[in-house]
């Protein structure tokens, strides 16, 4: 199996992220707090509880180079946490939202972060040295519904968003005094808030999205059990729509230019790969299990029905003595990579079952050619 370790931290986990050296993990146990655990003596020990928010924390991102944590919550607020001695000190970020903040992500240079919200807007936040505080600029009047995820392009300027209006959009977030113009005069130099592209591929809600390591491909998932791959982002993009017969995905992560991991309601990471022509297809589940010996195979209906109640496709309960698989929807997937690295082979997933599972692709011989 690809699962290296399974950790039961809580009854339910909303979101999680890792410290730069991967020795600590921060997660929200489906309430207004952020718990930080550290691996000590082979056991995970709770060392900090961040409790400035007063509603469910919906997003956490731990900066790799800055070692700062940014959090957002349904209380419409955001905090940037800096470690001073043994304490985490919060700085309030005024988002000026009238609806919940739903997601957050640091930019690659970590001089900005983006916040998606239920107010149909995206806040781009940056540090203002003169006044010693974080300020936000808002991208308005573009989304028709809640912004469910944000993803930064490697160039630190372009930002992609998904929304429950079924669309994927790419914006320029160029801020004078924070960003520098490129010498090529590319679309990334457009003025702040300018929409570079809008994709209407999905007929349902759209969720998690990621850029490939090079930034040449953008992938996002829909609630209609489809995943979309977009190349040549700009005025004339080329796109692929890939349908699969399993339950919808909630998030995705590029491992390389030719491999993507999707996670969602099937409680098992899905592997998608691209061939030499750049055509994407579903390869397999990452944590495939063998059926229980002696079990009788049921009908297709019973197999599908059984998945809703944590049963295997043959209609019988799982009897694996070392369960590595999530028991409920996987809501987040996070890469485990060091500062400056563009490649990685390990990642973690968390979900509504309160588990955090670490996966290692190096042990999967059939996937090595795609890394």
Describe this structure in words.
The protein is 2% helix and 46% strand. The chain has 371 residues and is mainly β. The strands form seven sheets. It has a four-stranded antiparallel beta sheet, with no helix packed on it. The radius of gyration is 20 Å and the shape is globular.
Task: Write a brief structural summary.
This protein has 371 residues and is mainly beta.
Q: How would a crystallographer describe the biggest sheet?
A: 4 strands, antiparallel
- State the order of secondary-structure elements, H for helix, E for strand: EEEEEEEEEEEEEEEEEEEEEEEEEHEEE
* Beta-strand percentage range: over 45%
* Low confidence ranges: 290-324
The total beta strand count reads 28
Look at the structure and give the mean pLDDT. Answer: 88
SS summary, helix count:
1
| Shape call | globular
Q: In percent, how helical is the residue content?
A: under 10%
Spatial strand arrangement across the major sheet: 1-28-27-26
End-to-end separation in angstroms reads 17 Å
Oligomer: single chain
Q: Gyration radius, to the nearest Å?
A: 20 Å
User: What structural class do you assign from the helix and strand content?
Assistant: mainly beta
């Amino acid at each position: 199996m690809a699962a290296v370790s399974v950790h039961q931290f809580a009854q339910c986990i909303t979101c999680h992220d890792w410290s730069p050296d991967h020795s600590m993990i921060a997660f929200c146990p489906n309430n207004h707090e952020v718990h930080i655990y550290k691996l000590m003596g082979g056991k995970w020990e709770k060392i900090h509880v961040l409790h400035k928010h007063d509603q469910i924390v919906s997003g956490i991102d731990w900066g790799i180079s800055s070692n700062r944590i940014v959090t957002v919550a349904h209380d419409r607020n955001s905090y940037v946490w800096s470690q001073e001695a043994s304490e985490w000190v919060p700085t309030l970020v005024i988002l000026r939202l009238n609806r919940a903040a739903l997601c957050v992500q640091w930019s690659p240079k970590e001089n900005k972060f983006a916040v998606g919200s239920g107010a149909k807007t995206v806040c781009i936040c940056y540090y203002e040295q003169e006044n010693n505080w974080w300020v936000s600029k808002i991208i308005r009047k573009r989304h028709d519904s809640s912004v469910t995820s944000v993803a930064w392009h490697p160039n630190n300027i372009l930002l992609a968003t998904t929304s429950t209006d079924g669309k994927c959009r790419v914006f320029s977030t160029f801020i004078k005094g924070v960003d520098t113009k490129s010498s090529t005069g590319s679309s990334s130099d457009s003025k702040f808030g300018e929409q570079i592209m809008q994709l209407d591929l999905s007929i349902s809600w759209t969720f998690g999205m990621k850029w490939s390591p090079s930034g040449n491909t953008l992938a996002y998932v829909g609630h209609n059990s489809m995943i979309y791959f977009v190349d040549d982002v700009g005025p004339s993009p080329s796109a692929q729509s890939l349908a699969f017969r399993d339950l919808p995905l909630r998030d995705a992560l590029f491992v390389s230019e030719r491999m993507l991991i999707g996670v969602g309601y099937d409680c098992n990471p899905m592997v998608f790969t691209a061939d030499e022509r750049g055509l994407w297809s579903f390869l397999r589940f990452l944590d495939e299990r063998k059926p229980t010996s002696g079990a009788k195979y049921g009908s297709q209906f019973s197999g599908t029905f059984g998945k809703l109640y944590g049963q295997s496709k043959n209609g019988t309960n799982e009897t694996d003595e070392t369960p590595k698989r999530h028991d409920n929807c996987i809501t987040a997937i996070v890469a485990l990579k060091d500062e400056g690295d563009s490649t990685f082979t390990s990642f973690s997933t968390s979900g509504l079952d309160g588990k955090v599972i670490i996966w290692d692709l190096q042990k999967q011989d059939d996937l090595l050619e795609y890394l």
